[in-house]
Amino acid sequence: MSLINRQIQLASRPAGEPSAENFRLVSTPVPALAEGQVLVRNHYLSLDPYMRGRMNEGKSYAQPQPLDEVMIGGTVGEVVASRNEHFQVGDKVVGMGGWQEYQLVDASQRGVLQKVDTTHIPLSAYLGAVGMPGVTAWYGLTQIIAPKAGETVVVSAASGAVGGAVGQLAKVRGARAVGIAGGADKCRYVVEELGFDACIDYKEHRDARSLSAALKSACPNGIDGYFENVGGMILDAVMLRANAFSRVAMCGMISGYNGEPIPMSAPQLILVNRMKIEGFIVSEHMELWPAALKELGGLVATGKLKYRESVAQGLENAPEAFLGLLKGRNFGKQLVGLI
Amino acid sequence: MSLINRQIQLASRPAGEPSAENFRLVSTPVPALAEGQVLVRNHYLSLDPYMRGRMNEGKSYAQPQPLDEVMIGGTVGEVVASRNEHFQVGDKVVGMGGWQEYQLVDASQRGVLQKVDTTHIPLSAYLGAVGMPGVTAWYGLTQIIAPKAGETVVVSAASGAVGGAVGQLAKVRGARAVGIAGGADKCRYVVEELGFDACIDYKEHRDARSLSAALKSACPNGIDGYFENVGGMILDAVMLRANAFSRVAMCGMISGYNGEPIPMSAPQLILVNRMKIEGFIVSEHMELWPAALKELGGLVATGKLKYRESVAQGLENAPEAFLGLLKGRNFGKQLVGLI
């Protein structure tokens, strides 16, 4: 066979806001399989905010994405050829296939490729609610915020893959869930479809004081837990409503991903309110993934954990979809359809 | 008997920096003792930065200091009259006597007055290393920073009552202790007398970048724990050198006590470095005081925990000494001698 793989590489590093010119589409033949290898036809590519950080050269929590190599990314797909006894043609798998149509992997390394069951859970969900974003939500909520019944949990980017799961997991635990999202459509979805108690449209608020007033109405008993995906003015506003002994799970600060300064205006509130603020990266807590995926998978299979997907069809559209994600143009989990 | 008690009251709330005019010296006769009451002649008054927060009206973690009442404060002294079976004339006691020479208390309330043993520990130490400042250091260091042997712990206001204990307790646990203090004299004392590994004079650094470079030299393996007493530029500089999974115990932010803005420049470092930042108030953790005081008392009695005191003699000098404390003019634990 003479398959052609198309992939998207990082061509250059952005100075500030990234653009389509930072990416390059490359076609190369798929090599023959060596012993132990598996060839996967990727069905969906996951686009996630963390990828923006990897495009920079500077120090971050992970190695930068190398130039002229395929962009990093989570994928789901189907095994189409195998020289590995643990995988058969037709197996559905999740892995870190990158921004490409085919993925040739040495599947004898544990964990690079996971077989998944699509009887009750759609394949794409393994990139969202039952994948890294879902586990991210689960970790920050259960291990850092740890809400008690009756407490109030606020989450920013509430209509996204992570944020939507945070609020629904909080509701399962008897907490009040309040979202912050951009635009009336997203806010309506967060309340009516995801079942949050309230959602605030941050675009209606020009500063932290105004947003803080809206939070006061939506959180009459104050804020006990905050799951941070955005940073900047939104964090400032939440801190003005934080209760004593409140917890902030710092998951992302997308508002500063292009290098804009995003100072925290009043860190003395950490002391005044005896807050705990903790940053985390879900890939550093692999020991908790099985417990998280068990709960998430059960909730998705029984329809109790809802989510929405935005699918950009075709690998060539991945860069535009990614740039849109960084601007909040996606609605729910952003995927790229590859078949 | 017709004793006269002199006390200092809060006369007005400061707008920004406080001044001597915010205080008022008042003389009143000591009333006769009722059943259950104890009269204490205070020997020392403790001056502490937290008192600045109490002078404000706004929301804080504690009730504001009421106007026209005696200023709140910790004291040590001697029982001079008692109508309570648990206290005898001559007992040495620690309590919250306030800025006054005599203290008449209903000692049947548990905990308002504690008898202390001055055989091996000087009475004044119960206001410092074996009192609230010592327990504050102990709590933040052991319960939040929890250093492992070989880790590096940094503390600001390192020559003060809290900071000095933080570094010495860190050394006991096998950690590297690095102080930040104002001026060459204080830095020399922190290293030569308290036994810190290094101390940086923040007055030699005009901005966070410069201080951060000095921290890099003093902390060749980065910073694993930071005990925050100051805030502002110093916190920014420390965060630039924070290691992955580092912990910040937020105890005080004296640089913002007069209402100056003290933004945290780069909160995204909390995420990048997976930091944990936690604010605390030691009086909310009374269950840990016995364990803390046991260690602190043992270390002081055996000369392993060193400290220095600045004593301003005479109640009438308390306001000036307090204003000096807020400007860092004290050297070690600031006391007012009352006899």
TrEMBL record, chains A, B:
PANTHER family: PROSTAGLANDIN REDUCTASE (PTHR43205), PROSTAGLANDIN REDUCTASE 1 (PTHR43205:SF7)
Domain Enoyl reductase (ER): 19-336
One Pfam family cited in the UniProt record for this chain: ADH_N_2
Protein name: Enoyl reductase (ER) domain-containing protein
Natural source organism: Roseateles asaccharophilus
Keyword terms, alphabetized: Oxidoreductase
Keyword Ubl conjugation: no
GO molecular function: oxidoreductase activity, acting on the CH-CH group of donors, NAD or NADP as acceptor
Xref: Gene3D superfamilies: Medium-chain alcohol dehydrogenases, catalytic domain, NAD(P)-binding Rossmann-like Domain
SMART domains in the cross-refs: PKS_ER
SUPFAM superfamilies: GroES-like, NAD(P)-binding Rossmann-fold domains
Claim: Transit peptide is one of the keywords in the record: no
